[in-house]
Amino acid sequence: MQQQTSNISLIINDHDAKRLPWLDFASGIMILWMIVYHAIYFSWSYALGDISEATNLTQIPSEVRAFCNDGKLEILNPCVAFPWLHFFMPWFFYKSGQFFTKRSIKDLWKKDSRKLLMTFVIWSLVGYIFYLFIGMFDGYLTFRNSTYSIIRGLFLRGQVPINTPCWFLLTLFGVRFVANNLLPERDDKYAAFKILFVVVVGYIISYLAYRFNHRLLPYWVANSAAGLSFFALGYALRDWEQKWIVLISSVVVCVVGSIIGCPIVDMFPNKLVNGDYFLWIPVSLCAIIIFNTLCKFLCRYIRIKPVELIGKNAMIIYVTHILVLTLVVEFLPITRLSTNLVIALIIMAHLLVLPILCWFKNNILNS
């Protein structure tokens, strides 16, 4: 099990360890969807223009999904328009928990501070440099929005512009430390009850943050609580995931969830975008179990090397994909291009830089 722990390609990137093909494949799919998700969202946002002033759905291109909210147009979350992988952020917490091994605080700090905390600091700093240059280029940079606003955003949201997806690294860093103290050993006599307690407490905190004055709380309070629930579930279900009763139950729950309205939460701001928040974690958990099972089954018969390659290099792709996207939307005349073409250009840009990122990770980061 200790050897398998290093196979989580987004969390732990030990290039000397034997890898699990299905896990690289699954991670690759999730990273690809994340890129497409952000490409769709950014292209729709630019097509919609000033959403604070637009009020007529007939004013926007037909391929853009939007809705009226209190007289204003808002972009429809891509996970609602295309809900097949709506659980992609919970999946990363779940998978980290599934391969988690309790250790001393000193060992955990030594490992996670390098893998997660330093990665967060370095790539957030790179994003901040992007933000300064783009701000100077576009003329909106001021002392306030380059200092005070950044510090305030770091405290309230756990991220800095432009590289906002790095919030996940900081949240996971905290979740792993809390889990290391709260979760029991797997062979503990009362492990199931203790893990269930952690799951329920995390669930309650995230739900209350959503239900009551959640905007007054820092984002990381709710997304850490929800992340802890998924992390603990992964920790508990490591050896149960492929049991038929678990798989069949998961299929039933997902079918029922789809019928009544697939519950989808934007995990970073803890914002409900579809369905019922109370059903979000159970339905997402069952979808994760089905997804993992399908990936394991598929990889027994066929190997899709390009997707596995993306999974093997998931960390470097994760922390750079918004930077690539930002360069595309800032320096190409996307306002004069069709929305679908903008999405295609963003995806092509990521594919073009993939060999460079792989070389950078293998020859610089792992040297």
What's the count of strands?
Answer: 4
So how many helices? Answer: 15
Order of SSEs: HHEEHHHHHHHHHEEHHHH
Q: How much strand? A: under 5%
Q: Which strand order do you get reading across the main beta sheet?
A: 1-2
Mean pLDDT: 85
Distance between the termini: 26 Å
**Rg, alpha carbons:** 21 Å
Helix proportion range: 55-70%
Largest sheet: 2 strands, antiparallel
Shape: globular
Describe the protein's architecture and organization.
This protein has 15 helices and 4 strands. By secondary structure, the protein is mainly alpha-helical. Helix 11 (244-260) crosses helix 12 (280-299).
Task: Please supply descriptive tags for the structure shown above.
two-stranded antiparallel sheet, 15 helices, mainly alpha, 4% strand, 367 residues, 65% helix, disordered N terminus, 4 strands
Give a summary of the structure in a few sentences:
The chain is mainly alpha-helical and 367 residues long.
List the helices and strands and how they pair.
Layout: H1 2-5, H2 21-48, E1 66-69, E2 72-75, H3 78-81, H4 88-98, H5 105-138, H6 143-146, H7 148-157, H8 167-182, H9 191-211, H10 219-236, H11 244-260, E3 264-266, E4 271-274, H12 280-299, H13 305-312, H14 314-331, H15 339-365
Antiparallel strand pairs: 1-2, 3-4
Helix pairs in contact: 2-4, 2-12, 2-13, 2-14, 2-15, 4-10, 5-8, 5-14, 8-10, 9-10, 11-12, 14-15
